[in-house]
UniProtKB/TrEMBL annotation:
One of its GO terms (molecular function) is transmembrane transporter activity. This is ABC transporter permease. The keyword Transmembrane applies. The keyword Disulfide bond does not apply. GO terms for cellular component: plasma membrane. It comes from Caenimonas koreensis DSM 17982. Pfam families: BPD_transp_2. The chain crosses the membrane at residues 6-26, 33-54, 60-84, 91-111, 141-158, 188-212, 218-234, 241-261, 267-284. The lineage of its organism: Bacteria, Pseudomonadati, Pseudomonadota, Betaproteobacteria, Burkholderiales.
Length: 306
């Protein structure tokens, strides 16, 4: 593959981690719940998935373990903020700190471990197309699953009755409760589903993207995924576009280094985070636009007895 084909392939690979996590957080926020614990969720899922593959040699069991870890932690978070009405922001930060510390402790003995040799995936015929074939059609199946899931989520949120109910819970939980919908249970299911996607993102990061375990390896991707939901104004298609855009910015640093561009590596490393800040600053210039698109009850507790 030439340089541009490599960059495109790496963009899809790296952007998938962000896309999965951001789509999970989008589901949370459509139900009115803000989860700032994505970083910790992804770290715990990464070590759970990596350790499972080390002991079983099966990638898919690793993905299942990552999703299970993400769902479990998200369920605990959900019970705290939905039933006990703890502050969503403080609880999310606590989850992030817990996940960072616990994953570092649990992963000590896996730092030097190596995964079995990774299989190569390719779609027959399509993968042989010059330039785009190697970039687009030799990706891990999870990449295609992520794109398909984003398309399904668009249909679910805007074309299905269940999606309408989920959005109504995020817009006005009092009205949804008055109509007889179990608001708390719907929010909990949304939180657990979001946790599973964040868990899959963490497992994919450790098993496929890096194929190793290092303490703190998520490296801020959970926070970027959180920012992506605002960048995308809570639209799945824009989340997907934003994820691959930020994935491309991340991969650009390696492309520039490989091309011999004399730029300090520290500057290149901070590119995705600078891009995140710039995008959020530009979006924040129009708060009315954010209010129009943001779920009305986002971050607000719901008291069914009031």
């Amino acid at each position: 593959m030439d340089a541009w084909s490599l960059l495109l392939a790496a963009t899809l690979n790296g952007g998938t981690v962000l896309a999965l996590a951001a789509l999970g957080l989008l589901i949370n926020e459509k139900a009115g719940i803000v989860n700032l614990g994505a970083e910790g969720l992804m770290l715990c899922a990464a070590i759970a998935g990596f350790a499972t593959v080390i002991h079983t040699g099966n990638d898919w069991l690793g993905f299942a373990a990552g999703m299970g870890a993400g769902a479990l932690l998200a369920a605990v978070f959900g019970v705290l903020v939905i039933w006990l009405n703890t502050n969503q922001y403080a609880t999310g930060l606590a989850l992030s700190l817990f996940g960072t510390g616990f994953s570092a402790f649990a992963g000590i003995k896996y730092v030097q471990e190596k995964l079995p040799e990774r299989p190569n995936f390719a779609i027959p015929l399509l993968s042989d197309i010059p330039l785009v074939g190697p970039a687009l059609f030799r990706q891990h199946p999870i990449v295609y699953v992520t794109i398909a899931f984003a398309a399904w989520l668009i249909w679910f949120l805007y074309r299905s009755r269940s999606g309408l109910v989920l959005r109504s819970v995020g817009e006005s939980p009092e009205s949804a409760h008055a109509l007889g919908y179990p608001v708390r249970r719907i929010r909990l299911m949304a939180v657990v589903a979001g946790g599973m996607l964040c868990g899959l993102a963490g497992a994919y990061l450790a098993i496929i993207y890096t194929s190793l375990w290092v303490e703190g390896m998520v490296a801020g991707r959970g926070w970027i995924a959180l920012a992506l939901t605002t960048f995308a104004t809570w639209r799945p298609a824009r989340v997907l576009f934003g994820a691959y855009l930020f994935g491309g910015v991340t991969m650009l640093q390696f492309q520039l280094q490989g091309a011999g561009v004399e730029v300090p590596s520290q500057f290149l490393t901070m590119l995705p985070y600078v891009a995140t800040i710039v995008v959020l600053a530009l979006i924040s210039r129009n708060p009315a636009w954010i209010r129009v698109n943001m779920p009305a009850s986002l971050g607000k507790p719901f008291y069914p007895g009031s």
